[in-house]
Amino acid sequence: AQTVTQSQPEMSVQEAETVTLSCTYDTSESDYYLFWYKQPPSRQMILVIRQEAYKQQNATENRFSVNFQKAAKSFSLKISDSQLGDAAMYFCAYMGGSARQLTFGSGTQLTVLP
Amino acid sequence: DTGVSQNPRHKITKRGQNVTFRCDPISEHNRLYWYRQTLGQGPEFLTYFQNEAQLEKSRLLSDRFSAERPKGSFSTLEIQRTEQGDSAMYLCASSQYGTSNYGYTFGSGTRLTVV
Asked: B78, B92, B86: which is closest to B112 by C-alpha?
């Protein structure tokens, strides 16, 4: 079974600074997808960024980028120029090639300090 | 399109009672998923439908849980004889077959408290 591990339960960053959230996963599949989701307090989960395992190029979405290390099974999220609105719980998630379900990590609570 | 809608937003029930939640997915999405999220944890997969067919169920979905999607549109999740351990956020998500690997659209969830 696939597992996703987020070893940082909480992180904080100063506004306008950069922060990196860590995620590792375990799988025997070669074809899969990785995601970072953001869950603000009492609000719905929102997709932040997506990475296809067969692509070597790291995904970027505006201030959000990933460092995907397939051999190490590592998938970290970098948030640049942090904003107060970035404060949320961030979940790393894995989807196998059959695209049937997402497996989530336990989350990292990000606090942005003004 | 208003996204994925879940009702009710909150439900408080006494132990032993039955509860039912409803999820209305994005209209063109034919896949619908249910997840459970306990406090401080990531969502855990419960089950998913493609159209009206329930294609996969997690071991977390005990025999007290039943999900339906009778016409391939909205879905209901029923919990019978609720227990305190059922207290959690129940999340619904939807996607379109063929683009599911682009991620799901989640609803805001139904928070269940069993007292």
From this structure: B86
The confidence score (pLDDT) of residue B1 equals 55
Tell me the shortest Cα–Cα distance from A114 to chain B, in angstroms: 24
Distance to chain B for A72, nearest Cα, Å: 22
Which residues of chain A are at the B interface, by a Cβ-Cβ cutoff of 8 Å? 4, 33, 35, 37, 43-47, 50, 52, 91, 93, 95, 99-107
Instruction: Please check the confidence at residue A78 and state whether its pLDDT lies above 90.
Output: yes
The whole-number pLDDT of residue A100 equals 78
Give the residue from chain B lying closest to A90, CA to CA.
B42
User: What's the DSSP call for residue A99?
Assistant: -
CB A89 within 8 A of CB B38: no
Across chain A, where does the E strand assignment appear? 3-5, 10-14, 19-21, 24-26, 32-39, 46-52, 60-61, 64-69, 74-79, 88-96, 102-104, 108-113
CA dihedral A33, B50, A5, A71 (to 10 degrees): -30
How high is the pLDDT of residue B103? 83
Tens digit of each residue's pLDDT (9 = 90 or more) over A81-98: 999 999 999 999 999 877
